[in-house]
Amino acid sequence: MIKTHKRVISLMTVTALSSLALANAAMTSTVQAETLFILLHWKLPQEHSNF
């Protein structure tokens, strides 16, 4: 009974950690996408002004 309980707790811990890692990865990619977006929009007008 105690072993099963420990297994469930460890399973929950792994699930929580993996979901945290997924959320962290999603946030990082979102930030990267926003940074790319900003950089593109900042660069494009400068290139257009050269024409």
Automatic annotation (TrEMBL):
Keywords: Signal. Residues 1-33 form the signal peptide. The keyword Signal applies. This is Cell wall surface anchor family protein. It comes from Streptococcus dysgalactiae subsp. equisimilis.
